[in-house]
Amino acid sequence: MFPMPKPVLTPNTYAYESEPMVKPTGFREYDARWLFQKEINLMGVQALGMGLGTLMHEMGVRPEIATGHDFRGYSSSIKYALVTGLMAAGIKVHDIGLALSPMAYFAQFALDVPAVAMVTASHNDNGWTGVKMGVNRPLTFGPDEMGKLKEIVLNAKFDLKGGGSYVFVENFPETYINDLTNRPKLKHPIKVVAACGNGTAGAFAPRVLEALGAEVIPLDCELDHSFPKYNPNPEDMEMLHAMRDAVLEHKADLALGFDGDGDRCGVVDDKGEEIFADKMGVMLARDLAKIYPGATFVVDVKSTGLFATDPELIKLGVKADYWKTGHSYMKRRVNESGALVGFEKSGHYFFNKPVGRGYDDGLVSAIAVLDMMDRNPGKKLSELREALPKTWSSPTMSPHCPDEAKYGIVEQVVKHYEDLAAKGAPVTGQKIRDLVTVNGVRVTCEDGSWGLVRASSNKPELVVVVESPVSEERMREMFKEVDSVLRTHPEVGAYNQTI
């Protein structure tokens, strides 16, 4: 028998060392995230492995899994606790060692293994850990699978068959890097700042970009899990500003910034302008639609309206499919719809065949940006950006909100705007043109200005984004409107950043 996990245990006690601790809120919509030692202990991670192995048997999945870990001071110990749980449940574990999340996804294909469990907290602050999981490549778990896993783990409903095994896959990064770089080199010279925020991508990204023929200026590529300058998060303005400064200092053509587990890529152009990932997605869609006219692009609800209104994309017969934010939701939608690419404002891009394998890989995204520039010789990245219709967009803003309260608050915000729409009441003095409630609420006014509120899937936060095709003033009006509704809920705290 294995003890039933407790939601809270006190460190430095016998119980903490002898019982599993797993806080229930760590099971999120499509992956798992906990504060290590405060919300989960190593026995709790072991229970998670037992639960995942049990679920694999219940789902009839061949009992083999690929696993890896990101570069944090505690990630390898967490992975080995997970591995012991998986082996107890009769799973053969293929360990690829230190890895990016997309490297683990790639391992499912390269090693012909059905399942994956990548130990990573992505761009979360130090102290966080988590696991990205899937049993049906290239997909990762959604709410149904996470709900079943949560039920198994918290109730200790383990099927501990035993008979599991372990193999360490030597030099797997070489296989991954060769897969990305076994292609023609770039035709035109290009100088690239590779920004890694001292995260895991620093071990791999510069090598890949150099192998493609780019001149690479490394920025914070030394592995340092204390993240001494800033968290590796290409949505964070601190990282983007560091990228900007490096581009201007080295007179580079662009900067490419990678998040903590390497599945996202942020971009700064030759003028030092940060290109938010949704606008970068429009630029890539323009480029790819010339090769694949009539393509469908899945776009998350946080993203710019240009995917639906850009004259160039309309001319090329592109279809925009706005869908739920979250790497699992987006992957599934891209896979099921046969879309060419899925673009998420956070920087997760999902390139489907023939460009990619359907999962999010920051290096595949970086290569797509470089290929776009290579197909437009003589044009600066800033020129391609300036060719887009002008809109005024906010960064992704995240006011603090407890996990236990955030979904209920979002439900009330959705109802608020549904009631306004039903009455024909104005928002910022205009009629509501459109209301999308597939993931929180995205309210669009007659002039195309819109605001979004949704619950973060992996942190105790809400997510707020606003945009206007009219003016910066209208964008700010939309923010004031949305914020005024949120301020009626005392549980909603301060923003991480604002406009």
Can you describe this structure?
With 499 residues, the protein is an alpha/beta fold. The chain is 36% helix and 19% strand. The chain has 16 helices and 20 strands. It has helices at 14-18, 42-58, 75-88, 101-110, 143-154, 172-181, 205-211, 237-250, 277-291, 306-309, 311-315, 327-337, 362-374, 381-386, 403-423, 472-486; strands at 32-35, 64-69, 92-98, 115-119, 128-134, 165-168, 191-195, 215-219, 254-258, 265-269, 274-275, 296-300, 319-323, 341-343, 349-351, 392-393, 432-436, 441-445, 450-455, 462-468. It has a six-stranded mixed sheet, sandwiched between helices. Strands 8-7-9-10-11 form a five-stranded mixed sheet, sandwiched between helices. Strands 16-20-19-18-17 form a five-stranded antiparallel sheet, with helices on one face. It is globular and about 65 Å long. The relative contact order is 0.10.
How many beta-strand elements?
Answer: 20
- Level of helix content? 25-40%
Largest sheet: 6 strands, mixed
Q: Using the CA coordinates, give the radius of gyration.
A: 22 Å
How does the overall form come out from the CA principal axes? globular
Strand order of the largest sheet: 1-5-4-2-3-6
Derived structural class: alpha/beta
Assembly level:
single chain
Mean pLDDT: 96
What is the rounded distance between the termini?
54 Å
Counting DSSP H or I runs of 4 or more residues, the number of helices is 16
Strand content: 15-25%
Uncertain ranges? none
